[in-house]
Structure formats: structure tokens, C-alpha cells
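Ticket #4471: structure export looks truncated?
Reporter: QA, pipeline team
Priority: medium

Steps to reproduce: submit the single chain below to the structure queue and open the exported record.
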Amino acid sequence: MADLPSEHLSTEPPFTNVGLDVFGPWNISTRRTRGGAANSKRWAVLFTCLSVRAVHIELLESMDTSSFINALRRFFAVRGPAKMIRSDCGTNFKGACKELQILLQDETNVSKYLSEEGCTWLFNPPHSSHMGEVWERMIGVSRRILDSMLSQISPSHLTHEVLSTLMAEVTAIINARPLTPISTDADSPFLLTPAMILTQKVCTPLPPPGSFENADMYRQQWKRVQHLANGFWERWRGEYLSTFQSRSKWQDSQPNVKEGDLVLLKDAQVKRNQWPMALVTKAHPGSDGKVRKLELKVTKGGTVKTLLRPVTEVVVLMSL
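Actual output as written to the record:
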């Protein structure tokens, strides 16, 4: 396992180094019509601070570059400019980089953005969600819970305002999670949470008084939001908070994949015994000297292609 990235140990303000990803969509009611209601879709982009693990959620009206830039500007307006952004290779992410002229990794002659140091956007190679680190963990749990909850709700009961308020409640729930195991020391009864670091307040916002049942889904909008927020909290408490325990790491050192090695490329979209063979044309070692990203040359249908893949997606057949 690689060493902890330097941005995780940064002492800079929260949301200086962030990872982001988009999840959704969900159907909402946008306006009333004679026949009922006109529906549209909404997505959400989740920003995760790589140092304090705090999250920030913004809604998207579409998956195009323009809508994503608006969400990015709202995030910067609230949390301040970021120095480094990490994400996967989404087309809307790369489009936003070009529109905003943000400095890309391994790309020169691109004007800097936000400050004299510039904002650097790093993209993970395709098929490597495990390199997403903490933001993939946060979005994985949040997406699973929200998709399960909202798929059971009629779009007529969801509006942009209801969904926007729900995302704010979800953000507060996620940021109130403990970052460390619960201490048994009586002199330190408080838990360290991302919200405590962001707001410098020990207490977290309490829910409104009252019991919000299923019947509240058909009443006032604010009660509908509180019922959904309670449902998210129940799932979050059972599916995520209970996983706080020690985890084992890989300790045995393995030889690096080298340029010129012959490998078998894993492909979940083809049948067994049809995985293509590929030649490693370039290995990208990390700061610790371990190779986790490869450039491969593979032949598909008589056409030679160059692919970028993580080492977890290949099986070494012959090493030089």
C-alpha cells in the first residue's frame, strides 16, 4: 500500500485540496401543469476536503460543463479557492478545466487560475475508482443511501427546494461524524468531527422538535425534508458509523511491472478466455518508487490502441 499522500497531511485551511465526484440523477417536479406536473432531473457534486474529510454538496441541473462550472463557482464562493482538485476522467470535469483555464497535470502552456500558484487538477486513470481515496468512500455511502431512499419517492413530492434543503441536511450529518475512535478519557469528552474544524463549534445543529413520520411526506415541505433527513441518518448510522474499526494493510512487497512486460488486460465487458494481451509501453512510478499506473499498447479488431490503466487491471504473463 502506498504512503499517505502529502495533501492528506496539509496544515492549510479546509478545502484547499479537494476531491470531487458527481452522483444522481433524481427526478423532481419543476412546475405544475394541467395534466399533473412537469418533471426534470437533478444531479449532485460532492466535494471532499482531503485533509479534514469535510464534505460540501452542490446541485446540478445538467451534466454539461456549464452547469458544473456554476456549481464549482458556488463552492469556491462559499469555501474559498482550492489549490488542488482530484477527480476521475469525466468529460464535464475536463471541459470545466479548459473553460476555466485550470492547470492540468502533465500539461504545459496553460494559464494559471485562482492565484499565483494556480489550481492544479489531477485526473485518476480510467477504471481506477480505488484511487479515489476518501471522496470515493464518502460518495459511495451517500449515493447508496440517497438512491435507495429517493427511488421510492414519487417525483411529485420532490422539488428543487426540497432536494436542496435535503442535501444541506445530509452535509450536516456527514460532517458530524467522528474522525477518531471514541475516547474513554473523561478529560476529553468531545468527539473530533469535520464540522467542529469548519465551524469552530462543539455543538451540531439539532433537528426540529417533533416526530416526523411517513405521513409527513404528504404535508408541508419542511416536514418532508426532515422525514427524509431522519431516514438518511438511520441508514448512515447503521451502514457507515458501524464500520469504524482497524483495517489491515498490504505489507508484502511485490516487484514492479516494467516497460516491455507482457500482461493480460482485465475486461469485465468480454467473456471468459477473451481478455486481450497488452504490452507495457510505459510505467509511472509513484513518489515511493512503486508502479501503480501503466501505459499499455493493445490490439483490438486489428487496431492498435494505447490505454492508461492501473496495475490492478492487469495480470503479468511475462516479465523481462
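Status: closed, not a bug. The export was complete when the record was re-opened. Leaving a note from the reviewer for reference: The chain is about 25% helix and 25% strand.
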